[in-house]
Amino acid sequence: MKKLHILLFSATLLMGTAHAQLRVEISGVGNNQIPVAIAAFADEGMAPQQVSAIIRADLERSGMFKVIDARQAIPETAAVDYGAWKASGADALVVGSVQKLADGRFAVRYKLYDTAKGGPLSSMSDAVQPEGTRLEAHRIADDVYEKLTGVPGIFATRIAYVAQPVPGKQWELNVADADGENVIHAFRSRQPIISPAWSPDGTKVAYVSYHQQKPIIYVQNLITGDVRLLSNQKGNNSAPAWSPDSRTIAMALSKDGNTEIYTIGADGSGLRRMTNSPAIDTEPRYSPDGQTIYFMSDRSGNAQIYKMSASGGEATRLTFAGAQNFSPRISPDGKTLAFISQRSNVYSLYVMDLASGQELRLADDAGEPSFAPNGKYIMYRTGSGGQRTLAVVSVDGRVKQRLSNQAGNITEPSWGPFMK
């Protein structure tokens, strides 16, 4: 899987690197931050990217850590005075080094120490191409996050989103690192692009493009850059969503006059109608086990969220509060529903515990949510007027980030899967 991640990185360079990076602004922190000291990596100045700085920024952005600057470079081979680091307030220590190899690659080595128990917790050593040093730093940050919290980190994952450098006149389907860096243009159009959706293996993105003056669903291979038409039925073709096994894509079609949920093979074969009601049924999403499809329908008179078996059948209504509820998204563990709810003329991001039905409001002025692959964060579009941008909130509402650029609008976020 690591080879796949490198292939994706190399292939996206061929699509054209964007100049405008996203800027991350952080507000709020976790309830119990873990103090961790991060040392500069020995000889990291010879690498294109400062590895320790990227690790530090990743951990700070998560809101889970109180980062302590070690104020010195410490290689992974150095002896560690555990008592001194514990006295400084650090529960853990990150050290490492960077070495330029004869073939032009960089050897990046790191160790994570537990200062309380007085021993190592983890280590990594990889040789990467110069352009891969940022990804390697993200992978180290992921390892630190997982070893100290027990939850996989998401710093080495990627996001897809739609940018409008010139609102109303130009659209770009972009792919970037989870921190907004390494932005690349996957597709450009003078007509709207909406609803990007990652394939479960992270190699493809399905999306809707209006570049032929109507909504058509395409699938783009991010390794080769190849684009394949998936659905160009009469009327609207919208809201693609992959099944967990990548074999099927659910979508909304109006080919018979009314918008209904359909499924189709990822190869474009086997179109099947899943709903049959006089209402508008749209925005399908598979559950992580592939057994259930969640969707939005106005069959009750206004937009609400329903679920049904992935094989079809009767639908069950899930939301009842608010004037309307839409954009259902399911957490990776299948236990939490994220959605947008209109209440008191405000569009807010909510999460619902599917077992108890208990709701929690996470953010106002929100739209188009997307779960991080570890289920701990949700990215969404914010800004109902003026400039639109992306934001991230933890599922408990404590940690908030805002990703913005200097011009244009950013919408339609989709958080990619884990890739090793």
TrEMBL record:
Segment forming the signal sequence: 1-20
Residue ranges constituting the TolB N-terminal domain according to the UniProt record: 22-118
Keyword Transit peptide: no
Keywords in alphabetical order: Cell cycle, Cell division, Periplasm, Signal
A Pfam family reported for this protein in Swiss-Prot or TrEMBL: PD40
InterPro entries (UniProt xref): 6-blade_b-propeller_TolB-like, Tol-Pal_TolB, TolB_N, WD40
Domain of life: Bacteria
Subcellular location: Periplasm
UniProt keyword Cell cycle present: yes
Known function: Part of the Tol-Pal system, which plays a role in outer membrane invagination during cell division and is important for maintaining outer membrane integrity.
PANTHER family linked to this entry: PROTEIN TOLB, PROTEIN TOLB HOMOLOG
Family indicated by similarity: Belongs to the TolB family.
HAMAP family on file: TolB
Cited NCBIfam families: propeller_TolB
Subunit structure: The Tol-Pal system is composed of five core proteins: the inner membrane proteins TolA, TolQ and TolR, the periplasmic protein TolB and the outer membrane protein Pal. They form a network linking the inner and outer membranes and the peptidoglycan layer.
Name of the protein in its database record: Tol-Pal system protein TolB
Organism: Massilia terrae
Name of the gene encoding the protein in the UniProt record: tolB
